[in-house]
Amino acid sequence: MTAAALLVIGLLFLACAEIGAPPGGPEDKTGPAILATTPENNAINVAPGDRIAIQFSESINKNTIENAVFISPRLDESPKYKWDGKRLNIILPDSFAREATCVVTIGSTVSDLRNNKMDSSFTIAFSTGEQINRGRISGLVMQENEPRANVTVGLFAFAAPDSSTIFDSLYPRYLTQSGSDGSYRLDYLPDGDYFPLAFMDKNKNQRFNIDRDAYGLTDRPIAVSGQGILENINFNMTKYDTTTISIISVTPTVDRLIKVKFSGKVIPDELISSLDRIWLMANDTSRPRLTPICLKEQGKDPVSSVHLWFASLPDGTYTLEIDNDLLNAENDSMDVMVSPVFTVKTEPDQTPPIIERVSHDKNTVFNYDSVISVGFSEPIDKNLAGDSLVRIFSDSANAYPLSYRYPNPLTLDVYVHDLLSGTTNLILVDQKLLADGHGNVSGDSIVQFQFKTFDDDSLGYISGTVSFAPGMDSSGMAHLLFANTDLKRDFERMIPSQSFTFSLPPGKYLLRGYLDRNENGSPDAGSLLPLTYSETWMTYPDTIRVRSRFETAGIEFQFK
């Protein structure tokens, strides 16, 4: 074979060879999409029929469909589902209603065979008459300042519930599910007053079970009129299980505190603000009931037990009573919850106090965050502690001037004067001066804690205005929450006037705001029965960038 012939054969081989990507490829992480529907979206004068077809972009996990299809107006009987490849045929028990808008929503929990969910719910509407309803509401579902996906959002066909409303026997008239970013939208709504409710729907029956499902409320009633579009109808989900809470046990501790264990989670700060609704009843004498002086736990994170301290607690048997509305706003079957009987018996106290928390420890703070809170395991001897229990030094070994205040017997607030910026600071606690009321001394050494302050020269500035849309309820102090996505840390600021200027560490920020109408320092989720709407909260649409020594101006935050 000649060289020329070999060259021709080689060229033919290369021409026929297929050059392609190696087998395998990147992992499929894309959720399914809907490509087409029959009837088409927004179709009018649709002929009578009993079938709706949904064409998906890929094969679907059929187990995720039946609990994620919502049809409004609601059918008297459940539809049937038949598959033709990637096409879902929804067969109704009867033909389409006459002169009516039919709304079909495919919820965001629908997934493909690799368990990738849809990014958001998908809704179509068609009419057997000459027009389609055009009302709409939209917003976000949030829980503890984070978007919450796959939450059922429903509209009930009444303005507000009352004591006779039995939710687990009612279906919402319109339903959808929140998407991966917490957003939801309900389209094609007819005129009317509605009660909106977001709920987890644990048993997937499209009905709300108040004893089982966490839920979220809006900050206002909803009325749809004409082709009105209601935006920013946001839901603030409850932080913990709505199951009725009861007292499981009450136990005196060696530190002369009373430990209360609950059947569910409670928020310490909510109890601290209502100590006058907690009572200790002596069972064997005619002594008046006692209220606690303080509660040891602090914060907004749910806990299952707390410690109460009473100034004087003689030996005897007792029961603890708590106003039922304080922990069980949805359950008015009783006025107070009552603990089992427990016994207090004085025994020698040989346990020294310990330091349980120091607010600034291992944190970086602004130099105006000058109040350091120190929490103890039991009340301490303030006379022994004097003005020398806590000392604070800058990184140049200079002692800061201090002043002390005891907001309650378990807490010491240390006020640091002239706290420097850009420093590493030491908090020193002398254990020899830390003792309880029975003379038990904590130790004979110096305990050390450390914190830093931001350097003023490294900070940037952010400025803008806070305003309210016409007709918006502007009552309550406005709070802005700047979430630094780089530091994974939130910075909250109260806004006493319409304009603001703050210093912040450099980085990218997400901005949220709420109206603190009950002045407890958090965006309350409200309660269902009796109905109390949630406090208003909003999100800023864009990411904000703060740079060192520069001002990011013109932030216009509007509550609407």
Task: Note down, in words, how this protein is organized.
This protein has 560 residues and is mainly β. It folds into four domains: 204 residues, Immunoglobulin-like; 98 residues, Sandwich (Immunoglobulin-like); 101 residues, Immunoglobulin-like (Sandwich); 101 residues, Carboxypeptidase-like, regulatory domain (Immunoglobulin-like), CATH 2.60.40. Helix content is 5%, strand content 40%. The protein is built from four helices and 41 strands. The strands form nine sheets. Strands 8, 9, 10, 11, 12, 13, 14, 15, 16 and 17 form a ten-stranded mixed β-sheet that branches. Strands 35, 36, 38, 39 and 40 form a five-stranded antiparallel β-sheet that branches. It has a four-stranded antiparallel β-sheet with strand order 1-2-5-4, with no helix packed on it. The protein starts with a helix and ends with a strand.
